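ARCHIVE CARD
CATEGORY: sequence design from structure
SOURCE FIELD: tokenized fold
FIELD CONTENT:
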């Protein structure tokens, strides 16, 4: 039986913060684990003629933080306000955590006749990454994720029979997309966009900030990070890969200009003390993958990095490295269960 020492709400906030710190922007983008209000804003004069403006909010069931550097405090603060309005708008379209969203309606009814274009874009991308990873990335594992949460909340593990019963509901090939319609071709199916939608939202918000004239910024949503321009005094953004054991021994550190990076790990959201059941599920078996504890990817977009990091957690590490090495402008860094690391040949060039 799982022993719970915190309330479900507090436990979710703690695990969401752990996921947020899967990639940590050192110095200018760091956040303290001991004090992280749900809605935090800060403006500081950071050198002559340069303001650091930052804001952290709850979004998509986790935390989203934006840090920007700009000569005009007012312009930067206004831009961040508009950025979070866009976060809220997109979350209302893509989140499964709110019963009023199109995704929640799709999961309840199995079809959606007039899907918003943003949802269709994410769904098409999800199916593309499903094909690219040969089924490792699969948004239809939602019934299994729900089973894990329900059974462990009741103090027991899901049985093999319960898992086997749900496996026929899994498979992105059973999603039919038309011009504006989405339809499940199997009973009891459901999707979770948690492994791709946060990256999509970060990309959209970054583009908006740049359009508003705030090109020097870092956005971090649950370890899905977009860096743009430069940090304080024109320095590169410094991003460290979180140690899965949380011993502050960063496995690697990158210095980034404009780029996209994402991490996914079994230490982020887990349901048992052994961490054999966590938020990532192998579609073929219905169990959580146990080959890696952390996968970090870089890609042209955060959405791509997000989906690849999730998919690679399911794949054998060697196979994942080969896959990413063949993708244009993509790299990966994997920490195995035995704490050994492996990475694509181009990864070293990006590390500080």
């Amino acid at each position: 039986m799982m022993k719970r020492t915190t309330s479900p709400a507090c436990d979710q906030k703690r695990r969401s913060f752990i996921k947020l710190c899967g990639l940590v922007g050192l110095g200018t983008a760091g956040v303290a684990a001991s004090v992280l209000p749900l809605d935090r804003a800060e403006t500081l004069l950071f050198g002559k003629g340069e303001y650091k403006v930052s804001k952290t909010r709850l979004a998509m069931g986790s935390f989203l933080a934006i840090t920007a550097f700009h000569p005009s405090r007012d312009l930067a603060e206004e831009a961040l306000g508009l950025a979070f309005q866009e976060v809220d708008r997109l979350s209302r379209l893509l989140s499964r955590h709110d019963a009023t969203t199109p995704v929640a309606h799709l999961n309840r009814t199995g079809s959606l006749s007039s899907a918003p274009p943003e949802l269709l874009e994410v769904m098409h991308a999800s199916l593309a990454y499903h094909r690219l990873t040969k089924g490792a990335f699969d948004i239809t594992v939602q019934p299994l994720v729900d089973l894990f949460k329900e059974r462990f909340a009741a103090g027991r593990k899901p049985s093999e029979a319960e898992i086997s019963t749900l496996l026929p509901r899994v498979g992105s090939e059973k999603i039919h997309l038309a011009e504006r319609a989405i339809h499940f071709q199997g009973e009891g199916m459901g999707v979770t966009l948690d492994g791709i939608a946060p990256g999509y939202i970060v990309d959209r918000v970054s583009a908006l900030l740049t359009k508003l004239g705030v090109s020097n910024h870092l956005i971090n949503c649950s370890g899905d990070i977009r860096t743009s321009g430069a940090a304080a005094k024109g320095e590169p953004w410094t991003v460290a890969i979180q140690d899965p054991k949380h011993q502050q021994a960063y496995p690697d550190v990158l210095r980034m200009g404009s780029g996209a990076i994402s991490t996914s790990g079994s230490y982020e959201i887990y349901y048992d003390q052994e961490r054999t059941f966590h938020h990532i599920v192998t579609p073929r078996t219905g169990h959580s993958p146990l080959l890696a504890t952390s996968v970090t990817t870089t890609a042209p977009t955060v959405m791509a990095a997000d989906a690849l990091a999730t998919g690679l957690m399911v794949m054998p590490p060697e196979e994942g490295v080969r896959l990413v090495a063949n993708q244009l402008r993509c790299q990966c860094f994997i920490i195995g269960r035995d704490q050994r690391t492996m990475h694509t040949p181009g990864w070293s060039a990006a590390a500080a």
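CARD ANNOTATION: The longest strand covers residues 51-59. The chain has ten helices and 15 strands.
SHELF: design records, drawer C
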